[in-house]
Amino acid sequence: MLDRLALVGSTGRGALEFQPDRSVVAQHEYADFEKLALEAERILDSEDYTGDGIEEFQNRGGSPGGARPKIFTRYGGKEWLVKFCAKRDSRRIGVEEYRYSLLAKECGIDMPETRLFEDRFFGVERFDRTPDGKLHVASMAGLIGADYRLPSIDYLHIFKVCAALTHNMAEMWKAYRLMVFNYLIDNKDDHAKNFSFIYRDNGWHLAPAYDLLPSDGINGFRTTSVNDSIEPSRKDLIAVALKVGLDKKDAEDIYENIADIVSKRGVPHRM
Fold it and tell me: What predicted TM-score, i.e. pTM, was given to this entire model?
């Protein structure tokens, strides 16, 4: 574990750094994404891989967590996280995630800048980096010690942490929009590590959204329950809104607005 932290060093998400720092920061503006994608496939397919792909991934961020191989890179003067296919992914997974990122923005979800590299690889700008330095980021899993590999939290927990950290109703509405969007697109992989809080402008805020894709979750059920239900309905989402002090009429209006946008874009969704 100490060796792994040393490899993270100063390149990890958020502002925390580990000493001794044995990380390698790639400053190149260019990455051969096609080559890295092929190397990722070889690494995932072989238990005794001996190529130089692992070193390349280490130099570009050590594939920072999650089910899909990822790297950090620089492009256009900004820092990006770029994803590659996992073994069971569709070849169009990058295109699909980009499509859903644009849909999320249209639905009023706070999202970082996203782009599709080489018309295939999904990239998202790092929201924990600014021209003035790094920003602290803490996930729900880290804040409350929740196991993100198993169903362990309800959206009520997210709202309670949001209220305690931010003291801001605008942030609560951001969390509500995200809950509604995840429900409508059938994103059941909404585990405790896929929600974070970021410290900026002298206060805590709900971090920009990420990992927004339809997903089967665990055995077809939601990873984060809604109103204590792993098979929730619209009523459960409104019930959560009321329990955390949000206005019922506004909550219903936002739900209908997001559902309308998702429907008009031809995305399979719940009602």
Answer: 0.87
